Each structure stands twice: as structure tokens, then as C-alpha cells.
Amino acid sequence: MAGFRLIDLAKPFLAFVPEIELPYDNLPFDDKLVITLTTALIYLFGQFPLAGITKESVDVKDPIFFLRGVFAAEPRTLLEFGIFPPIATALILQLLAGFKLIKVNFNQRTDRELFQTLIKIVSIGSYAILANIFIASGYYGEDLSLMAKFLINSQLIGAGFFVTLLIEVIDKGHGFASGAMAIIAISLSTGLVDDLFGVQQIPVGQEGHREPRGAVINLLQGFRAKHKTFLGALVNAFQRDYLPNLTSGLLVIVLGGTVCYLQNIRTELSIRSTKARGMSNVYPIRLLYTGGLSLLFSYSILFYIHILGFVIIQLIGGNQEGSIINKVLGGYESTEFFYLARFPLSLLTPPTSFFAVFKQPLTVVTFSAFLIVTGVWFATNWQEISGSSSRDVSKQFKEQDVALAGHRDASKELIRIIPVASATGAATLAVLVAVGELLGLKGKGAGIVVAVCSAFAILEVVTVDFQQTGGQSSIAQMLGGRAA
Amino acid sequence: MDSSVPGGQRTLQKRRNAQLQKEKKANQTPASPRQAGFGGSSSSILKLYTDEANGLRVDPLVVLFLAVAFVFSVVALHVVAKVSGKIF
Amino acid sequence: MAKQNAQFDKLVETPLEFVKEGNQFLQKCKKPSKKEYLKIIQAVGIGFVAVGVIGYIIKLIHIPIRYLIV
After folding, report:
1. Residue C24 binned pLDDT confidence (cut-offs 50, 70, 90)
2. Domain range annotation of chain B
3. For residue C1, what pLDDT is reported?
4. Quick one: where's region Disordered (chain B)?
């Protein structure tokens, strides 16, 4: 093939970029389960504070607080950027390849290898770029020594490097389904447990009182605390804003429940075998045909927009009041924990609390519209290129000697359903997330929606695997056989 | 029936052929590894890696151990920083 | 002018059509029954909490380490 191809950029790296081995055989069910869990737990273990950063509070606060939930990122830890780089890189490169904007011949093994190596290097490169943006902005402290800068760099890039490899371990078939999604699901569920039942005591206020992190524990402890009245404890448990409160906890649970409901809305097409007589079955097409991926895409784009804004305002303009950049782009308002964007950027920033909506009411429209438009656009295109379009499904039907009951041409019927389903599903999810985020969940709403969708996607793979291996699993037996 | 097709039956045949050719072409260059039949991202699952490239091959368990070791090296860095005061 | 109008019409019509189409699709869909839904919620809830508790134990390991060195 003549001409320059983007994937050829990966060629020089092929030789020394680490590559996880594929399993020789299909691994037993239990091994996969254990590896999936262990990998995600190691990811969680990585949420360890960075060394070499200042401990005093700095002027530059967290500008991307509402994007952290979705990407399992924890501020000022090794996982400052979570799994954003691999997810965003993979989604965007795979979309570009699907549009044929990047020339990849997926029929050829060498091309597929180059393509995945390209994803890997670009993600690690993104970690490096993001790390240096944050270092240069003064987020980790002003006037860092050269040594400190080097150490922070190596910590963040090293963590990024291992995160991409952890994802690869699961992706390559040592675990179930997708590494990125397993990590999101487990990290978010841990976050939920921590927010509700976390027992860590954190000092609050000047009087040296301590409050637990978990909202439920806080309620119980509040009733017994001597410095609080019964009513005061109740009010405090529901609306403290410095630590997780019960209101947001309940909202998150409601959102999760709604996603469970949406996940199980489907149309069922009756199919019959063309070989054996009387064999009929149903083929479900889910409303959420592209699952949580549309949201991941919307949030990836949001992340890029906000990082770009942060670079221009903080790095180039220094967030100076009255400078031209701040007049045009609005600049940031520094609060106790966060950097709140002003006018143009605030249109794409969900409020930190329900009442903060009134400061910028337009956000309700722009933020929801952004999520819906990007989500629907993505879902429509993704179903087309990801190998599950109507054409691909009807091809599968033919290969398996299956036909749609009452339709001669399966693809005609499928093309009427699949694109509509994926677009509608993406729009519904976007609306759900917009509602949650506009109520002030600070990224936890979007996080739980993506996490539940991912959990369902993984669960489906797990169930199929469980049935294929004939249910031979000592773990499932231990749990009383209700793992499937 | 024939008269309803402008240009007659033959044009219809041509069009059909062209359509078939187009479809064939579309099928020849798959848009994703899965469309080519090699696994990869599906409609609701994002996969980054499908094939084993000829790189520096590592065992998954080694990676898991190294990842934990990496976190502990950061812990060690904290300890060094605390013991030696302000070194950086 | 006419062309602009047509474009404007299209801009309004596309989302409307989208909503209509989506609504029609939703109406045709099979929704989970109450019993089915309760079962799903229960399973997902238990799974989420179980995995979350395992993850939280890892986080608990962090607390003493942080306390000692930070």
C-alpha cells in the first residue's frame, strides 16, 4: 500500500512496547473471574497519593472534578486521570478507522497489530501530556523543583503505563469482556460503598469534630453524637456538602435502578431455524444497543474540551482577572475544592449543587443538548462500524441458518430497528445523566450510569461463558449456584 | 411491470449489479476488527486489544505483580521523602 | 430566502421526527415486568455491593499506610 498511513507510526514501537500474551487455551471460568477481579482491585490499589507534591493548598484547584466519576479518576493520586486516555483514544481511533479516515485493513493481522499498538502508545502519550499540563499549571504546587517535576512525571506516566497494561490483561481474554469496563464497574461500586458506608473518620470544622465518610454511617453516628441534636443530625446527614450526603447517595441509587430498567427494555424478534422444523426462538434487540459507550464518548469529548480550556486559561493566560483570555473564555472561579468555569465553559459544566443551577440556567439546555447530540451521533455511527449493524446481524443469521419469522429478508427488518434503537437508547441515557448531573451529583450520576451499563455488558459475557463451560465453577458452587 | 422501470429491464439488471458490487466492496474493507471477524469492540463492549503483536511479550501475572510493585515503589518514595525531610 | 426557510424547517423537523420515531419504537418495546425487574434489581444490587465491599477492603488498606507516611 502506497502512501502514508497513521498506523505506520506505531511500527518503530512494535519491538519494545510490552505486549501481554494471549492465553494458550480458553481459560477456565474461575480463573477468568479471579483475574478480572484481581486486575480491577490492583487498579483500585493504585489510588494512592502522589509523592513529591505540596501539601499546602494551592490556588489552582481541580478543573475536571465532574469528569472524574466516569473515568474512575481520583484527584492527587496516581490515578489522576483514571482510565480516560485509553478509553478516549480507543473510542476515537476506532471511530476514525471505521470512517476510513485512518487506513487500516482489519483483514490483515499486521495491520491489526499496528492499530492496537498505536492505541497503546497514544494513550501512554496522553498520560504524559496531561501530567505535564497539570504540573505546569501549578496544580501540584508552585515552584516545584526539577526533581519533583521529574518524580511526578514518572509516577503519573508509570501509573498510566500500568493501567493500559491492566486493561490489556482483561481484554486479551485472561478476564471477562473489556478491561476498561470492568475497571469502571468495580471502581464505581467501591466508590458507592465508600460514599454510603465508609467508616474513615475525617476531621471537620474548627472544633476538632470528626465525621465518617459514609453517609449512612454518618446518620447513625450523628444520632449518638453529643454535639448534635436529633434533628440537626438528620439535616446534616442529608445535606452536608463537604462529604457524601444521603441525598446524593439516594439519587445515585435511583439512577442506577432506572438504568437497570432501561437495560431490560427490548424488542423481541421471533426467529426460526431454516434447517430444523419447529425450532423457534426470540432474538432480543436492546433499547440500549450501544450500552454505556455513547456516554463514554460524550464524556471523552467533554474532557478534551475542558482540558483545552484549562490549558488556554491557566497555562497561557494564568487565569488573570481582566486579561483578554479571561474576558473571552471566562476564566475560573476558585472555590474550596474546585475550579469553577465561568461563562462560555460553564455552559458545559454541570452545577456543583442543585441550587447552583440558578447561577447559570442556560447550562440546563446546553449541557443536556451536548450529551444528547454527541451521544446520538456516536450511537448511530458506532452500531454501523462496530460489527453489529443490521448487515452484520443478518449475515450472522445466515451463517447460523436462522431466519426471521415472517420476513424473507432479515436485513430489511433489522435496518428498521437497530439504528432507531441505538439512537433512542443513547438519547434516553443522555437525558437520564443530564437530569442526575444537573441535580448536582458532580460526576457520580454519569459514573453510576456507565458503571451499571458496563456491569450488564460484562454480566452477559460472563453468563455465556458460564453456560459454555457447562457451569463447572467451584466459585459458583460456593455462592450457592447463583452466580449466573 | 417492465414499463415501470425507466430504461427497461436491462438497466435494472445493471443497477442491481452495481449495487451488489458496492455491497461487496463495503464488505471487503471491514470497518473494525469485529466486522472482519477477529473479535474487538462490539456494540456495547469497548475492547482495545485483540491480537498478539510481536513485541516484548509478557505474562499477565508478571504485569499484575509489577503493577503492585510500582505502587509500593511510590509508597517507598513517600517514606524516603518523609525520612530525609525536604529532598525535592 | 426560500432555501433558508427550507433549511430552517429541516432543523426543526429533524429532532421532532427523531422524538416521534423514538417514541414509536419505545411503545413497541417489551418492558420488564415488575417481578422480573425486582429480580434484576436484587441481583445487580447484591453484585454491586459485594464487589464494592471487596474493593473497599483494598481502600481500607490505604488508610493506615497514608496515616503513617503522609
Report:
1. confident
2. 59-87
3. 52
4. 1-41
Which pLDDT value is given to residue B3?
Answer: 47
Q: Which residues, in sequence order, are CB contacts of A465 under 8 Å at separation 6+?
A: A29, A32, A176
Residue A8, in any domain of the structure: no
Cα separation, A140 vs A144, in Å, equals: 8
The answer to whether the complex's ipTM is over 0.90 is no
Residues of chain B contacting A112 with CB distance shorter than 8 Å: 33, 38, 50-51
Is any Cβ of chain A less than 8 angstroms from the Cβ of C42? no
In a domain, A18, yes or no: no
Q: Of chain A residues 421-440, which have a CB less than 8 A from chain C? A: 421, 423-424, 427-428
Chain centroid offset of residue A322 CA: 36
Per-residue pLDDT averaged across B48-59, rounded? 81
B75 CB near a chain C CB, below 8 Å?
Answer: yes
pLDDT of residue A484: 39
Collect all residues of chain B within an 8 Å Cβ-Cβ radius of residue C70: 78
- Amino acid identity for residue B45 in this structure: I
The chain B residue lying nearest A85, using CA atoms, is: B48
Residue of C nearest to A40 (CA): C55
Per 3-state DSSP, what percentage of chain B is helix, strand, and coil (rounded to 5)?
Answer: 55, 5, 40
Cα B17 from Cα A334, distance rounded (Å): 65
Q: Which of C25, C40, C55 sits opposite A190 (nearest CB)?
A: C55
What's the rounded mean pLDDT across residues B58-85? 89
Number of domains in chain A: 1
Q: Which of C20, C41, C48 to mutate to test the interface with A (most CBs of A within 10 A)?
A: C48
CB contact under 8 A, C31 and A37: no
Most C CBs within 10 Å: which of A189, A270, A288, as the mutation test of the C interface? A189
Whether A22 is in a domain gets the answer no
Residues of chain A with pLDDT under 50: 1-2, 481-484
* pLDDT single digits (tens) A423-449: 999 999 999 999 999 988 888 999 999
Mutate to test the interface with B, among A94, A290, A461 (most CBs of B within 10 A): A94
Asked whether residue A370 is domain-assigned, the answer is: yes
The reply to whether residue C32 touches residue A265, judged by beta carbons under 8 angstroms, is yes
Residue of C nearest to A190 (CA): C52
B64/B87: higher pLDDT: B64
Q: Which residues in C have their CB inside 8 Å of a CB on B?
A: 65, 69-70
| Cα–Cα distance for residue pair A187/A197, rounded to 1 Å | 15
From the list C61, A149, C70, A73, the residue with the least C-alpha distance to B77 is C70
What are the φ/ψ torsions at residue A76 (nearest 5 degrees)? 60, 25
Which tens digit of pLDDT belongs to each residue from A114-139? 998 999 999 999 999 999 999 998 88
The CATH number assigned to the domain holding A341 equals 1.10.3370.10
Check whether B61 has a pLDDT greater than 60: yes
Alpha-carbon gap, residue A229 to A225, rounded angstroms: 8
Its domain, for residue A104, covers 27-197+245-471
Tell me whether residues C54 and A261 touch, CB distance under 8 A. no
